[in-house]
Automatic annotation (TrEMBL):
InterPro entries: RelE/ParE_toxin (IPR007712), RelE/ParE_toxin_dom_sf (IPR035093), Toxin_YafQ-like (IPR004386). It comes from Leptotrichia wadei. Keywords: Toxin-antitoxin system. This is Toxin-antitoxin system, toxin component, RelE family. The keyword Ligase does not apply. The keyword RNA-binding does not apply. NCBIfam families: RelE_StbE. Belongs to the RelE toxin family. YafQ subfamily. GO terms for molecular function: RNA endonuclease activity. GO terms for biological process: mRNA catabolic process; translational termination.
Length: 91
């Protein structure tokens, strides 16, 4: 079962910025492919649930200070990519 990937408007802006910054976009989408199949990420990505304003969302580390915030909607099989950036940019 593969989840349909949805991009928030904010994510699209942050993806464009990441490309300008020379980030490895292929690395990002390898992780997204794993998530779309709802497989468990390798421990090196530090995948974990978020709290407070981001309750219900998850975060993983693409690189040490490059993060992906995402959320599963199991009832409609959608993986929503919400935010992308460094700790200081996101929190």
């Amino acid at each position: 079962m593969v989840y349909k990937i949805k991009f928030t408007r904010q994510f699209k802006k942050e993806l464009k910025l990441a490309k300008k910054q020379g980030k490895n976009i292929n690395k990002l989408f390898k992780i997204v492919d794993i998530l779309a199949e709802k497989k468990v990420l390798d421990i090196k990505y530090k995948d974990h649930a978020l709290i407070s304003n981001y309750k219900g969302f998850r975060e993983c580390h693409i690189e040490p200070d490059w993060l992906l915030i995402y959320k599963y909607y199991d009832d409609i099989l959608v993986l929503s990519l919400s935010r992308l950036g460094s700790h200081s940019e996101l929190f």
